[in-house]
């Protein structure tokens, strides 16, 4: 069965998440340096049947694209060129970092651990992907 990969793209660190086989739940996968992202994705694509990736769409509170968007578009172009059969979808990621930070507090992580951007980005990627799964589930229910 295929899976969906979630990406919280960052200029320095990128968080990744992945679904279960039934595409119901999102699980944090890892956070890696963005410069190593394509190499890491090559390994994932080789080892797991990925049908789609969901990449966060960073927007400002005024609903404008953030400065990070130009880097994400470059990444999407590069990824799509290498993997043209993988569907790429975007999801508004406003407040995911804030939700991830609150989650870290609720999990009881110490201040030092909460400063770890890798953990924050991995949780954000999980929130992005789970939000996408919930949105799709609601749309399927509306259609039936």
Write out key terms for the chains shown.
144 residues, alpha/beta, Nucleotidyltransferase, domain 5, five-stranded mixed β-sheet, globular
Question: How is this structure best described in words?
Answer:
By secondary structure, the protein is of the alpha/beta class. The chain has one domain: Nucleotidyltransferase, domain 5 (2-Layer Sandwich). A 5-stranded mixed beta sheet has the order 3-2-1-4-5, sandwiched between helices. The longest helix is centred in the last third of the chain and has 27 residues. The radius of gyration is 15 Å and the shape is globular. The protein starts with a strand and ends with a helix. About 30% of the residues are buried.
Helix count from the secondary structure assignment: 5
Derived from helix and strand composition plus strand pairing, the structural class reads alpha/beta
For the biggest β-sheet, the strand order reads: 3-2-1-4-5
SSE arrangement, N to C: EEEHEHEHHH
Main β-sheet: number of strands, strand sense, barrel status? Answer: 5 strands, mixed
The whole-angstrom Rg is: 15 Å
Assembly annotation: single chain
Distance between the termini: 23 Å
Percent range of helical residues: 40-55%
Please give the structural blueprint.
Elements (H helix, E strand, L loop, with lengths): L2 E6 L4 E7 L6 E8 L3 H11 L2 E8 L11 H14 L4 E6 L3 H11 L4 H4 L2 H27 L1
Helix pairs in contact: 3-5
Provide a quick synopsis of the model.
It contains 5 helices and 5 strands, in the order E-E-E-H-E-H-E-H-H-H. The chain is of the alpha/beta class and 144 residues long.
């Amino acid at each position: 069965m295929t899976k969906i990969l979630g990406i919280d793209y960052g200029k320095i660190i990128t968080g990744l998440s992945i679904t279960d086989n039934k595409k119901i739940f999102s699980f944090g996968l890892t956070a890696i340096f963005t410069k190593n992202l394509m190499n890491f994705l090559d390994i994932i694509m080789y080892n797991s049947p990925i049908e789609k990736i969901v990449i966060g769409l960073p927007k400002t509170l005024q609903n404008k694209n953030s400065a990070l968007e130009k880097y994400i578009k470059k990444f999407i172009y590069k990824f799509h060129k290498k993997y043209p059969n993988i569907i790429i979808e975007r999801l508004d990621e406003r407040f995911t970092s804030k939700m991830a930070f609150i989650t870290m507090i609720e999990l009881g992580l110490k201040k030092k651990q909460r400063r770890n951007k890798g953990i924050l980005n991995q949780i954000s990627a999980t929130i992005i992907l789970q939000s996408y799964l919930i949105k799709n589930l609601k749309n399927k229910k509306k259609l039936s």
